[in-house]
Amino acid sequence: MARGVLPFIRKSSQSVPAEAVLEALDIPILVVGDDDAVKNANPAAEFLFTTSEHTLQREGLRSFLPSDNPLFALIDQVRKDRSNVTEHGLVLESPRIPQRRVNVQAAAMSDTTAIILAFKERTIAEQIERQLFHKGAARSVTAMAAMLAHEVRNPLSGIRGAAQLLGENAAPEDKDLATLICDESDRISDLVNRMEAFSDTGPLTRKSVNIHEVLDRVQRLAVSGFASNVRFINKYDPSLPAVYADRDQLIQVFLNLVKNAAESVPKEGGEIQLRTAYRHGVRFAVIGSDARVHLPLEITVQDNGPGISEDIQPYLFDAFVTTKTNGSGLGLALVAKIIDDHGGIIQCDSTRSRTEFRVMMPTVPSSALIPNQTSGKVPE
Q1: Which of 28, 123, 235, 286 could bridge 275 with an S-S bond, Cβ 3.0-4.6 Å?
Q2: Closest CA to 179 of 192, 160, 154
Q3: Mean pLDDT for the chain overall
Q4: Closest to 271 measured CA to CA, from 318, 319, 235
Q5: All domains of the chain in start order, with CATH
Q6: What is the pTM assigned to this prediction?
Q7: Do 253 and 336 contact (CB within 8 A), yes or no?
Q8: What is the distance between the alpha carbons of residues 231 and 250, in angstroms, rounded to a whole number?
C-alpha cells in the first residue's frame, strides 16, 4: 500500500505503520482526499472494487462509480460538517464493479482534508439467518409436496376419467363443461407434479462439475427459446475450481434463475450477465457447532430489469410468493431447496435497474477429487 496521509498507530513505545494494520483487516478501507482522489486502499478495498490500489489512485473514485451515487453525497457531507456518518444499505454498482449492498462509515481525519471510508457488506450472520429462513420455507414445502402427491393425485385421476366419460355422451352444450373439468384437472395435476419435485429423494448424486459447462448449457437452452431476444454477457473466471454438486440439479437451478431474468428484462436492450468468481477466505459458521463451511465459488445471474419490490424481497424464496401474473411461486422456493441440499447459499440484491442472484457453493472435497475433473475451466 502506498504511503500517504495515514499516520502511525502508536502502542506503548513502539510505532506500527497504519498501512500494516489496514492491510491485515478484512474490512474494505479507502482514504479519499480532495476531488475524491484515492490516497490509500487496503487489500479488502481492492477486492471490493475489483482493481488494484494503484489503479484507484490513478483513476479516482468517480471512475468506478456514477456521479449520482449516494457515496459522493456522503463524502461531501462529512467533508463539510467534519463529522462521523454511517449510511446503511448503500448500493455500489457500475459497469466496472459488480453490485454490492453495503453499510458505509465515513469519518473526517484530523489535521487533514482526507476522508476515511469503511465498507461493510451484509454480514455473515445476516446471510446465515436468511439462508435458514429459506431452508425452513423449502422444508415446509417438502412436507406439503408429499401430502399432495399421496392425497390428490389418485382422486384427481378419477375425476378426470369420469369427466371424459361424461363428455363422450354429453349434449353438445355440456361437452365444453366436460372439457373444462379435464383441463382444470390437468392443471392441478401439473401443479402437483411440480410440488413433488420438493420431496426428499435420498442423498444427492454429487461429483466434480464444471460450472461453466452448466452455464453454457443453460445459455444455449435460453437463447434457443425464451431468451432469444436477450443479450448475454459472460464474465467467467477461467481458473475456477469445480463445484461439488449434482449436475442436473444445477442446470435446473440456473435455468430457473435465467428464465426469471429473461422474463424481467426489457424487450429491447435486455441483458443477462453470468459471472463466476473465487472468493478467498469466505467461510460460514455452522449453527450449533464449531465447524465452519468454506463456500468460495460464487456464481452470479444479473439482469437489467426493473428490479424486485422491497416489500417482497424478504419473502422471495417462500413457496407461492411470486411477482408474475400467472406464476405459481414455486420456482425460487425449489431453487432455495436445491442450493440448501448442496450446502450452499443463495442471495438476492435488487434495485430499480438491476437484480442480482448470487449462489455460493463448496468446492470438491479432496476425498472426492477425480483426475482431470478438478478445474472449472471451459475446454477450448
Answers
A1: 235
A2: 160
A3: 77
A4: 235
A5: 8-121 (3.30.450.20), 126-196 (1.10.287), 207-368 (3.30.565.10)
A6: 0.54
A7: no
A8: 22
How does DSSP assign 6-52, residue by residue?
Answer: --EEEETTEEEEHHHHHHH-SS-EEEE-GGG-EEEE-HHHHHHTTS-
**CB neighbours of residue 232 within 10 Å:** 16
Q: Which helix (H) or strand (E) holds 210?
A: none
Pairwise CA distance, residues 118 & 35, whole Å: 18
Query: What separation, in Å, do the N-terminal and C-terminal C-alpha atoms of the chain show?
Result: 38
pLDDT in tens, 27-42: 899 999 887 889 989 8
Task: Give the three-class secondary structure for 111.
Answer: coil
How confident is the model over 193-238, as pLDDT tens digits?
665 655 555 567 788 999 999 999 999 999 988 899 999 999 999 9
Q: How far apart are CA 103 and CA 118, in angstroms?
A: 8
- Alpha-carbon distance of 76 to 57, in angstroms, equals 19
Of 103, 107, 84, which is closest to residue 31 (Cα–Cα)? Answer: 107
Name the residue type at position 165: L
> 34-46: buried (b, 16+ CB within 10 Å) or exposed (e) per residue?
eebbbbbbbbbbb
